[in-house]
Specification:
Layout: H1 23-58, E1 63-67, H2 68-73, E2 83-86, E3 92-96, E4 99-103, E5 108-113
Antiparallel strand pairs: 1-5, 2-3, 3-4, 4-5
């Protein structure tokens, strides 16, 4: 049985377990296989970076209090975050990298910046 390159279909010569005729075909095949996953990850990373930039812009001194509407108007997407942190009192901060927010009454948000991972909010 004649073996064929998975990308271009050319006849394979050499090792019995060879799947591609060249590095170019191997790269082309793998890029095509991974493109959907890469596009999803790229899209999510773009949203996370935008959320971080918004929080950074609204938190120039490490802490701030803004209305949720201000974040929404800036294009902040609340469903995308990197992690959460629960304080000893039960408050849950939602973080996008080192910038986080805590929902307050009346639609306000307390914005914070963690200087390093060991530092507590």
């Amino acid at each position: 049985m004649e073996r064929r390159c998975l990308d271009c279909g050319d006849t394979l010569i050499g090792r019995a377990d060879k799947k591609f005729c060249s590095d170019q075909c191997r790269n082309s095949y793998n890029n095509r296989q991974n493109s959907d996953a890469n596009n999803l990850v790229r899209k999510i990373n773009h949203i996370l970076r935008k959320n971080r930039r918004i929080l950074e812009g609204l938190t120039p001194h490490g802490k701030a209090k803004v209305h949720k509407d201000k974040l929404t108007q800036a294009g902040f997407q609340f469903q995308y975050l990197t992690h959460t942190y629960t304080t000893q009192t039960g408050n849950v901060y939602h973080f996008c990298y080192e910038y986080g927010y805590l929902s307050l009454p009346d639609g306000y948000m307390a914005l914070v910046k963690r200087e390093n991972e060991k530092e507590k909010v």
